[in-house]
Amino acid sequence: MDTAIRVLVVDDSNFYAQLVADTLATDYDMETLTGNDAREGLDLLETSEVDCVVTDYQMPELDGIEFLEAARERGFEQPFILLTGTGSETVASEAVAAGVTHYFQKDEGDQQFEKLANQIDNAVEQRRTERKYELLVDNSPDLIAQVNADGEFVMTNEAMADSFDATPGALTGTSLFDLMPEEIAAERLEVGREVIETGETRRFEDGYDGQYFHNVFVPVDLPGERETFQVIARDITDRKETEIELKETVEKLEESNAQLEQFAYVASHDLQEPLRMVSSYMQLLERQYADELDDDAQEFIEYAVDGADRMKQMINDLLQYSRVDTRGGDFEETDFEAVFEQARDNLQVAIAESDAEITRDSLPTVVCDESQMVMLLQNFVSNAIKYCDEGSPRVHVSAERDGDEYVFGVSDNGIGIPEDQLDEVFRIFGRLHGKDEYSGTGIGLAMCQKIVDRHEGDVWVESEVGEGSTFYFSLPAGGVADD
Ligand code: ADP
Fold it and tell me: Could you tell me the pLDDT band of residue 426, with boundaries at 50, 70 and 90?
């Protein structure tokens, strides 16, 4: 120990007090103070730093044990060594019960001072070690306590005391039931008793008054302490609040998404009927009154029928779009080369008419919804064929492994997309051209986006006007948990 031990020696015999103090100072390098009674001793404890008290037992007014009790009451926690000349058994047991660190007889012969110095050394060393651990516990931001089987605090750290606006000393002896709602106190005590009984640590979360805790209850495997348990509680209010907020946001989002899908479905489904009426009555008009209508009227009817047809197509596409999530198929091991063949077969007519050449790399097997993959690829390839002005379309489907996903690409030699409209094309009904230039409803790519979203992948496009475009989509190589 690098700092000298500071000892207060109290004895009503001034001679003896001085003898002890001088010996400890001269022979054992200790710093010493002396007092002649307990009152003086208490005053010195107030004003000086003391590591250990050595006190006579028999003194006028307060005896050595009463001196100890008064000092403890004032918060003095260092070791107390009791000196006595009588060697009475009753004093010894009273002294131990009162918390005296050592009990020492004055008349132990020549070696008495060496023995006393050893006792002081050991007691101070032990107290310093204890204090080190106390500090560790006190400096912890976690709420730490030892609680007995009746639910009373035996000991707490600063953080635990702070959480109840108290000091560790004031909290000792207080019951859990005085500090928290009865239900929580009862639950905690039940867990604590289980821990005492089984000797096994328990971890759980609870909360009250807007605060949440992660608790660890640990058995205390020490003689005399086995009827108690340790509580280490961590305040997780911030984390919990974020979790709750996140959960609420996800729930709201899911609800609004479901409402939107429901809306798209209902709107498209219910619009079909009145639309069917419009086009069939138009056709009836055309058939039954053809002779009475002039050319203008015939032409107007044609426009109306055409409009109704287009609207029907849009409604059908919207209906299909709204069903991507709700009517999706199972995710299974899917050979993308088979997906490619199916998409190409479905596009036979367009391929033949445009004299398109469709090629591919070797394609992997991925866990996904096969029929949606056919839809996806078919959409990209048919766009590649459709948005090609010069020469015959050349379309290539590629696939590359990138970390834990596959990135597929569908590239063409078509008209390309201006840089500032690359996002626009994925919007519902988002079209860069009029219906007279290129047919279509503008839902295809929005649906591609939704299909890829369902597979937890991404979709994007790179393009140069006049040169061509490549639509990319990624899919997790390990597959996605099927919902
Ligand atoms: P649609 O083809 O029915 O209009 P899409 O959602 O499939 O709807 O495409 C949206 C728009 O994106 C198209 O109207 C077109 O302007 C543009 N587009 C899609 N694919 C290509 C492509 N391969 N090359 C150039 N433009 C494209």
Answer: very high
pLDDT(269) > 90: no
- What's the CA-to-centroid distance between 446 and ligand 1, angstroms? 10
pLDDT band at 204 (very low <50, low <70, confident <90, very high): very high
Q: How far out from the chain centre does Cα 5 lie? A: 49
Out of 3.40.50.720, 2.60.40.1970, 3.20.20.150, 3.30.565.10, select the CATH number for domain 332-476.
3.30.565.10
Domain ranges for the chain, please list them.
6-136, 140-235, 269-326, 332-476
Q: Is any atom of ligand 1 closer than 6 Å to the C-beta of 64?
A: no
Task: Tokens 């097997």: give the residue.
Answer: 365
- Summarised one tens digit per residue, pLDDT across range 70-118 is 999 898 989 999 988 765 667 777 888 888 888 888 776 668 889 999 9
With cut-offs at 50, 70 and 90, classify the pLDDT of residue 154.
Answer: very high
411 Cα–ligand 1 center, Å: 13
Pocket test for ligand 1, best of 425, 428, 473 (most atoms within 8 A of CB): 425
Q: Is 317 in the pocket of ligand 1 (CB under 6 A)?
A: no
* Greatest pairwise CA separation for the chain in angstroms: 143
CATH architecture of 6-136: 3-Layer(aba) Sandwich (3.40)
445 CB near ligand 1 (under 6 Å): yes
| Whether the Cβ atoms of residue 397 and residue 403 lie closer than 8 Å to each other | no
Sorted by sequence, the CB contacts under 8 Å of residue 384 that are 6+ apart come out as 356, 393, 395, 410, 411, 412, 414, 469
Give the CA angle between residues 223, 229, 233 to the nearest 5°: 145
For the cut 60, the answer to whether the pLDDT of residue 481 exceeds it is no
Residue nearest to atom 14 of ligand 1 (CA): 431
| CATH class of the domain whose range is 140-235 | alpha beta
Q: State pTM to two decimals.
A: 0.60
Q: Measured from the CB, is residue 395 less than 6 Å from ligand 1?
A: no
Copy the structure tokens of residue 315: 């409604």
